[in-house]
Amino acid sequence: MITLASDFGPPYPAAMRGVVRRRTDAELLDVSHDLPRGDVRAGAFWLRFLLPEFPPAVHCAVVDPGVGTDRAAVVVRAGDHAVVAPDNGLAIPAARRLAAGRRGGPVDAPTEDDPGIAVFAIDAPEPDSATFHGRDVFAPAAADVHDAGVDDLAAVDRIAPAEDYVDLSLPTATVDRNAAGEPVSAVGEVMVIDTFGNVITNVPGAVLDGVESVEVNGERVPVGETFADVDRGERLVTVGSHGYVECDVNDGRGDERFGLGSRSPIQLVF
Amino acid sequence: MITLASDFGPPYPAAMRGVVRRRTDAELLDVSHDLPRGDVRAGAFWLRFLLPEFPPAVHCAVVDPGVGTDRAAVVVRAGDHAVVAPDNGLAIPAARRLAAGRRGGPVDAPTEDDPGIAVFAIDAPEPDSATFHGRDVFAPAAADVHDAGVDDLAAVDRIAPAEDYVDLSLPTATVDRNAAGEPVSAVGEVMVIDTFGNVITNVPGAVLDGVESVEVNGERVPVGETFADVDRGERLVTVGSHGYVECDVNDGRGDERFGLGSRSPIQLVF
Amino acid sequence: MITLASDFGPPYPAAMRGVVRRRTDAELLDVSHDLPRGDVRAGAFWLRFLLPEFPPAVHCAVVDPGVGTDRAAVVVRAGDHAVVAPDNGLAIPAARRLAAGRRGGPVDAPTEDDPGIAVFAIDAPEPDSATFHGRDVFAPAAADVHDAGVDDLAAVDRIAPAEDYVDLSLPTATVDRNAAGEPVSAVGEVMVIDTFGNVITNVPGAVLDGVESVEVNGERVPVGETFADVDRGERLVTVGSHGYVECDVNDGRGDERFGLGSRSPIQLVF
Known about the structure:
Three copies of one chain form a homotrimer. With 270 residues, the first copy, chain A, is of the alpha+beta class. Helices cover 19% and strands 30% of the residues of chain A. The first copy, chain A, has five helices and 15 strands. Chain A has helices at residues 13-23, 40-50, 92-100, 133-148, 254-258, and strands at residues 2-6, 28-32, 58-62, 73-78, 81-86, 118-122, 159-161, 174-177, 183-193, 199-204, 213-216, 219-222, 235-239, 244-249, 265-269. In chain A, the strands form two sheets. In chain A, strands 8, 9, 10, 11, 12, 13, 14 and 15 form an eight-stranded antiparallel sheet that branches. Chain A has a seven-stranded mixed sheet with strand order 2-1-3-5-4-6-7, sandwiched between helices. In chain A, strand 1 (2-6), helix 1 and strand 2 form a beta-alpha-beta unit. The longest helix of chain A is centred in the middle third of the chain and has 16 residues, at 133-148. The radius of gyration of chain A is 20 Å and the shape is elongated. The model of chain A has no long low-confidence stretch (mean pLDDT 93). Chain A binds chain B through residues 1, 3, 5, 29-35, 46, 49-55, 104-105, 194-196, 225-228, 238-241, 243, 246, 251, and chain B through 8-15, 17-19, 21-22, 28, 37-38, 65-69, 128-132, 135-136.
């Protein structure tokens, strides 16, 4: 199976599907082609959230503001999975989680003893274009990696262990606790806004255990288990499906009502 | 085959695809993930229109403003099909039509002698999240139902006949006729606006047979067989592909030109 | 394999998927359902760009402002491919390229000695609707053509060689060269704007070889190999992945910054 993810929007992903299908009969499933445009960090967040839901697969992921420059292309082996991506860090947080065999739940800074990921460089032939490496570089590499098998990457022409690669760690929040271990405050930031307008932060959801309300950047907001815990149109803070604190509105847009955007700082006071 | 429908927009449906694929090799086809957000009635309309186009399948459909509350999850068996959905009525109109083996054409209130649907309750284990039951409840249930087979739902763990369920009947229009049986007027409402801006009502299209123009909420508009029957930019009333009266503009948006939105009342005078 | 392309947006393509799957087990892959709405020429441009990326397939393509009129439906055989489409020219540029076995790169007016395309008329039974021939005419025909095989179209009921069909040639640019063969100026037009806001013209990219800057409609703009050759927010002219001159902004919208839209005239002075 090969999954496809990008920030291309329609209709460019069709070219990737065709290129893959010319080379292999592997099943094709879309992750999304509406990842936040040009935002490697947000793409890395979504991939870390979504790719572990799939069974072992080759994932072809492209958010690539440096397309056409001399940034390299990589294949990251992570357990039974492989992620083919530009060498800009996009694949790394997802690969670390895939290698650890974990699915949902908040994460955690990478630790030294995480099961390893292995990064390979793709020595692609001269691409047909300088602006569409999704078609010219990544899709062909994903097909080749799929057919060679994740355990036999060295057998793929033009793939060799990378001497170096761009690492990426998603930022982690700081939680201050009192002597009893209860959270007093947390400082983090907004990772992504989803299409509902839900504001997804990097503060691990466990800080909300047993908490009835919390100050978000100075304003007290009720904590709910789900949207329906507040009236329609009202704000709430909850734990999202990725395990992090979200700032939401029941049947409305949290980003607008909280005045928050991607990378906004978040301070929670309990 | 498993079809997926939701109001999630990107990228959440990827998690549903992955969860299904971890459990079964069934073919995956998308219905749409852009159903009108949080609008159970509109979702039910679209599902009733679209699901009967498919051969026998398990349909996983999620429009779920009550996610995380104690609303139940159901599997509705309808002929050779099954629809897995929240217990909010979303699946019922489509299931009734699937059970009747009918495809297009306007519908009709459910009748007492419709072939039965059978509703089963899903006793899901504690979901990982309170806000993404598409991933945590409905996708796993759809995979399990698929592999057990629609005729053997009772064999699926944690699925049992529902003692009760939320019914939903889409509203029907009232047509007044004269002594000769010709329509004099019709009163209904707008069911959905499609992405073209076409205004889809619940008035059965047959009322337009042999009619050259009709008053829509007080303004006379020509009746056409298709868009090209009026000049570009002009309004028309026609019978849509679902069999209902539509208020459209040739190469334009009917909702804007008629001033109509979802649930607007419609009065037609012939 | 059957590919699906349309300008329908969600959720109508689901009906096409279902109709095809009721008739055949062929793999289904989406090209895009967000082709520019009602714009046959733009749809033809995108199909010519995208369909040659696929291995031999039956392509079902619908951009059909004349739906419900007496415009015919056609199957165009092109090498090992077939394109099922309304008879409005939509399929022709892609079919010519498929027949020639060419993929990317700028094209060229059709020439007399191009390998032939063969156009067949579909004598569809009375469709269920006057407004959704994607479901009622084109999807069933694509399934039938797939199962009969592209080489045996005459064996398909209701398909016969067309006596006549609507041809479509995409406009070509004019390039003036000096005695040394270097381009002095080029006059063309905008073919499509993509979702990034990139302005894709019909001027073949080769005119930019060795050129450092060019006047676009009177304003001098740097020529780059890729976006990163200019600062973020700056304009550039480059060769797109389809082989034509594009007017772009690094991390921004070219259409807005150049003030260009679909069909805008373009004059380049070197």
